[in-house]
Design goal:
Elements lengths: L7 H15 L2 H19 L11 H14 L22 H12 L13 H10 L1 H7 L6 H9 L2 H8 L6 E3 L6 H11 L14 H11 E5 L2 H18 L14 E4 L16 E6 L9 H10 L11 H12 E12 L9 H7 L4 E7 L12 E7 L9 E3 L16 H33 L1
Parallel strand pairs: 1-2, 1-4, 2-3, 4-5, 6-8
Antiparallel strand pairs: 5-7, 6-7
The structure holds S-adenosylmethionine.
Length: 436
Amino acid sequence: MSNRTLPAAAYDRLTAAVARDTGQRRTAALWIHAAGLVRHAHDHGLLPLSSPPPGPDGLRKALEVLASCHPALAPFTDPAVLPVWSQPLGAAAWSGIEQFWAAHPGLEDGHRVDGYALGDAYQLLSEEARKGRALCQTPPWIARLLLRLSLEPAMEEWGPDNTLMIDPACGTGHIVLAAFHMARVPPVRGRQKGSAGREDQAVERALRTVTGVDLDPYAAALTAYRLLASSAAALRTRLDRVPASWPVSVAAADSLQDLDQPLLRAGAYHACVANPPYITPKDAIVRDRVRAAYPQVASGKYSLALPFTALMLEHLAAPGGFVAQLTANSFMKREFGRRYVEEFLPRFDTRWIIDTSGVYIPGHGTPTCILAHRARRPVGDTITVIRGNRGEPRVPEDPARGFVWRAIEAAVDGRLARERFEAGLRAHVAQLDNRA
Ligand SMILES: C[S@@+](CC[C@H](N)C(=O)[O-])C[C@H]1O[C@@H](n2cnc3c(N)ncnc32)[C@H](O)[C@@H]1O
C-alpha cells in the first residue's frame, strides 16, 4: 500500500496525538517514523528477527538488532539521532502508532523495498525537517532525469566501475537511491567500458558509486538504511548478510561548511546531483558564515541553493564532472542572483537549462528549473534550453505523467538522440579520414 492513500492530515493528526505524550512534535515524529522503519524492515524479511518484540521497549530492541546488521546502521542506536533512547513513550501513544502502521503494511508501492514511501513519510511527519531544513522529497521521476544528465554521461565517460556520484543534500535519499539503481544496472551505452558481472558485484559497485550527505542525521541514517535494504533485496537476503566491508557512503554533516568530512573531499566526484535547499538561512550566524565561505555567489538575501552550486562546481566535482540540480528559479528574478548569473555561472560549461516552473511537483510550492553543467570552462557555443510555454491545466492524477513533464522528457529524449547521432557521425567520419 502506498502513502498516496494516506492524506498528509493523517500524519499530522498522529504526530499531534503522540506529541501530547512526548511533549515535542520532533520526538513524536521520530518515534512514529522509527516504528514505521522497523515494520518496513520486518515486512520485507530484512531483519534477523521472526517478529519485532512488542511495545516501546520492543522497538528499542528491534532497533538494536537493525543497528547491529551493518556498521552504517549504527546511528539508529544513537540518542542524538533518535530520541527513542532518551524519551519514554506511554502505552496509549504506542498503540496509536501501531494502529497507524498496521493499516499500511509494507509501507510501499507494490513490492518495492527501496523505501520511497518511508522517505515521503518522514517528510510528512517531521515539520522540523520541512520547515527548519527545507526537506522536500525529490520525486523519483525528477531524480531519473537529473541522473540522465549527469551520472549517465559520467558513467559513459569514465566507465561504470570508476564513476563516483554524490548528492550533498541527500535528504532521505531519493536521488541517491535512483543513482544506486542506475549504477547497479548501467544504461547500455555506459556499460561499454566493462561492467557486466554477477549481481553481488553489481550491488557492490552501486554502493561504491553513490554518496549522500545531509545536515539531518536521521535523514542520513534513513538513506543508509534504504541503500542497504535495496542491496539486500537485490541479493535476496537479509540486512545482516550484506557484507560489512561493502561501503555505504552516507554521512550527517553541513556540506557547505564541514569540508573536513572525508565524503566531501575535493575533486572526487564525476557526477554531483542535488535538489538543494532553496531557503535563506534563518540563523544570522549561519547566514554570515556561509556568505563568508561563498562570497562568489552569496550576496544579499541569498538562497542556499547558490552556495550549493558553488560547492558542487568548484569543490566536489572532478575536472569535467557533471553537475545537475533541480533548484528554485528565484535567482533569475531577484537581486541576489545577479552576481551568480552574470559572473559565476558563465565561468562553467552550461549544458542544459530546463524551465520546470510549469511542472506539478508535489510539495514543491516554489517555481523551479533544472540546471546541468560540466565543471570546466565553457566549451562550444551551444546551451540546450527547454523553455516553458504554460503550466499544467490541472493537477495531474499522476504527476510523472503530467503534460508539461512529459513534454520536457520528450524534448530531452529528442535532444540526446540527436547528440548521439551527431557524435556517432563524427566518429565515423574520423574513422574514414584515418583510413584515407
Ligand atoms: C530539497 S531537500 C532534498 C531532498 C532529497 N533530494 C530527497 O529526495 O530526500 C534539501 C535537503 O537539504 C538538507 N540541507 C539543508 N542544509 C544543508 C547543509 N548545509 N548541508 C547538508 N544538507 C543540508 C536538508 O536537510 C534537506 O534534506
